[in-house]
């Protein structure tokens, strides 16, 4: 096969997978200072996606990317705290934060902090958009104190972990 | 007295009180985006000021501005949490955060969050400068997620509370 044909085949393959990608692959961009913007479409109605984000029993099944996840706290209300402990092959990782706003089933605003970088707090705004066809678009904007902290997060290989979490969420949503 | 003489007298009075002011009155400025910069000189050596900021028994005596203060947690180490509950005439107020950096006796970096505005996290960097004459300059830079959050804090009458806390700290330092 010529190089040009290979490119064409690749383009066709990409074109063929575009619809699947729109659902399966998160779009990660940095449109504003200190921010990471993530969009992902899930093949499930909004109420079900909301439950997967807020019910401790369900969160435990996807947030840890297949690793054991202990939900120590998940108080889904303004001022409530959350704390998860992930038992990964490379060690035990704690994550925690607090809810600034809880508006079911459309919006969560909460802080996020990894024990490995204490005090490096991220403000996460997650919106759940009903696409009207049984699917839901989840948009997460993460605001950091500085661009350096944001870029450090991007370099930590955030997108791999995110893909794994979202794939686990796909499976959970299909099973509910 | 002529207007000019009045101005001169006022200037002289201000000049006369400059030294006292440098010690007694915090200088609060907003030199950078999203930041509040505070400087205050204390008439005590740096080690003593450091203790007043990090020993729970001492913090309880000044941080609450004369109100009862319960120190629920004060883990002065990287990753350590802190949580104080102030019993003020207008109600009970919780404050909490986590240490990003602890470098005795010169530098503390920690987060700050008031229960009344959960998720509105402030990143505070406090430096303790030995002035070489038995006095210590304490500089606190508070970094907010947005200018709006910073300006909201300024409008909450932050400087009155700060004056009361620092006056209580003056008294404590003199007694140690």
Protein model, in words:
- Two copies of one chain form a homodimer.
- Chain A is α+β, with helices and mostly antiparallel strands and 176 residues long.
- Chain A is 35% helix and 36% strand.
- In chain A, strands 1-2-8-7-6-5-4-3 form an eight-stranded antiparallel sheet.
- In chain A, a hairpin with a 6-residue loop joins strand 3 (68-74) and strand 4.
- The termini of chain A are far apart.
- Chain A binds chain B through residues 78-80, 97-101, 109-111, 113, 115, 118-121, 123, 143, 145, and chain B through 78-80, 97-101, 109-111, 113, 115, 118-121, 123, 143, 145.
Protein topology:
Two copies of one chain form a homodimer.
Chain A: H1 3-16, H2 18-24, E1 27-29, E2 35-42, H3 46-54, H4 56-59, E3 68-74, E4 81-88, E5 91-103, E6 107-114, E7 122-130, E8 136-143, H5 147-155, H6 158-175
Antiparallel strand pairs in A: 1-2, 2-8, 3-4, 4-5, 5-6, 6-7, 7-8
